[in-house]
Design goal:
Strand content: 5-15%
Low-confidence stretches: none
Shape: globular
Strand order of the largest sheet: 3-4-5-6-7
Structural class: alpha/beta
Number of helices: 18
Protein name: Uroporphyrinogen decarboxylase
Distance between the termini: 45 Å
Order of helices and strands: HHHHHEEHHHEHHEHEHEHEHHHHH
Number of strands: 7
Organism: Geosporobacter ferrireducens
Mean pLDDT: 95
Length: about 450
């Protein structure tokens, strides 16, 4: 067995042990490097490289050589071509090459009722044409625009996918099982991010909170569909970044944000899919709520008190984060290593912990790369356990059942299941039905996936 293959097996095992509630051989490391960082690290022009992809494999390869992450480090990226084709207002590439999210409003306050009636229909008919100017046209032109955008989007997906497979094998990274990952947002966050905007949702909390509640409930079928991947797995993950919760008063959080978010996470757990929840900003006042999530939910913290989190949540949930990325730019190498040791001493005992910085470095100048590499090397070589294989202490309740049964199935006139398609095409050859069904439904799902990469 080659050294790289042995390393990959070790990495697979330590993450498997973590998710199986066992003490791993050592603390697993998950350190993402966004595409923009990798391009800058390789010395390539940021905007041009995102468009042409010239040199992108070499850039990602160079980043892989630098990191000691156990998980594949290539992070989430937005692609420029389909956004340009669609005339995106909510994702705009600046002169520096970064795709940014300016404040946008896709739904007016008097349109809540239309949204509540059927969110997906409302998104297709009203929201997208407002957020994407090239869709605000006649039906024929809109169809041609979207066809070009669909092709452009999946060209990038295919290119990056092939690179990912090569680098994962070349460097022996851990990755989740095939088709077992997804991402989604809390219903409240979805409504705030692109539909009503930060300012709009803040006003709605005061003037029409009951409409927000109804809209969040109406979003649940869509968000659950998005959050459950084709092959749910306890070793997979659905990533959920939390945006607006810390900007709400406790009473508003309890009434407007938490109910549908909690229901969504429990529904995904019931389906066999664990969540990685990025607790953006400071969630210390909501620890009691987070405790009630399904056992072994993966909670990734940006700010807060790591000891308090370990004491409160560390026996029930899997913890990560807290290491301040800014420290890597301002402190000495030894101080950076000492900070890692401090957090490991707090968070690693008893297991249920993997190392991760509080956020990913988007720009090259946001960190000292030498310090970044030194910290990961220290964790990889020193954060070891004396009792690998022993079970971690279990605490908490079983997964709540029958959540999914109480949530309506996702339906829209703009989304067609195979059964609905077949009903309108009774002449399908029975001998080919299974093949045709799989192929046509895959395109329906590809379109659904792309739609929510736009929001």
């Amino acid at each position: 067995m080659s050294g790289m293959k042995a390393l990959q097996q070790e990495r697979q095992q330590i993450f498997k042990d973590l998710y199986d509630s066992k003490i791993p051989k050592r603390v697993p490391i998950n350190a993402n490097l966004p595409l923009e960082f990798c391009i800058q690290y390789a010395g390539l022009p940021l905007a041009e490289t995102q468009w042409t992809l010239n040199g992108i494999e070499e850039a990602l390869d160079k980043a892989c050589q630098m990191t000691r992450s156990d998980a594949y480090p290539s992070g989430f990226a937005r692609f420029p071509a389909h956004l340009q084709i669609l005339g995106a207002k909510g994702f705009v590439m600046g002169s520096n090459g970064f795709i940014q999210h300016p404040e946008t409003v896709g739904m007016e306050v008097d349109e809540y009722d239309d949204f509540i009636k059927n969110p997906y229909d409302c998104i297709m008919e009203k929201v997208l044409p407002r957020l994407y100017s090239e869709l605000n046209t006649d039906p024929v032109t809109r169809s041609l625009v979207f066809a070009r955008a669909f092709k452009a989007f999946y060209d990038y997906v295919e290119t990056y996918g092939k690179i990912d497979v090569k680098l994962i094998e070349k460097y022996g990274f851990y990755t989740v099982p095939m088709e077992s990952s997804s991402w989604v947002t809390a219903p409240f966050d979805f409504i705030a991010d692109f539909l009503r905007s930060f300012k709009g949702i803040a006003m709605d909390v005061k003037r029409c909170p009951e409409k927000i509640t109804e809209a969040c409930e109406a979003m649940l079928p869509i968000q659950i569909k998005r959050g459950i991947p084709p092959v749910p797995s306890k070793y997979g993950q659905t990533f959920i970044p939390l945006h607006m919760g810390t900007y709400l008063r406790n009473s508003d959080f309890e009434k407007l944000y938490w109910p549908t978010f909690s229901k969504m996470v429990h529904a995904l757990a019931e389906a066999g899919q664990p969540c990685v929840i990025f607790c953006e900003h400071d969630w210390m006042r909501y620890l009691d709520y987070l405790y009630e999530l399904p056992e072994n939910t993966r909670l990734y913290f940006e700010h807060g008190d790591p000891k308090r989190v370990k004491d409160k949540l560390g026996k029930k949930h899997i913890i990560s984060g807290f290491y301040p990325l800014t420290y890597l730019r301002t402190a000495t190498k030894q101080q950076c290593i000492d900070k890692a040791k401090e957090l490991i001493d707090i968070l690693a005992p008893g297991g249920k912990y993997y190392f991760e910085f509080d956020k990913s470095p988007v720009t090259l100048d946001s960190i000292n790369v030498e310090n970044y590499a030194a910290v990961l090397q220290y964790v990889a070589e020193n954060a070891k356990y004396d009792n690998p294989g022993e079970p971690t202490v279990a605490e908490g309740k079983p997964v709540v059942k029958n959540i999914l049964a109480g949530i309506p199935k996702f339906k829209s006139k703009y989304y067609q299941t195979w059964d609905e398609y077949k009903a309108g095409h009774p002449d399908i050859n029975p001998a080919l039905e299974a093949i045709i069904a799989s192929k046509l439904q895959s395109y329906e799902e590809m379109l659904f996936m792309m739609m929510f990469m736009l929001l």
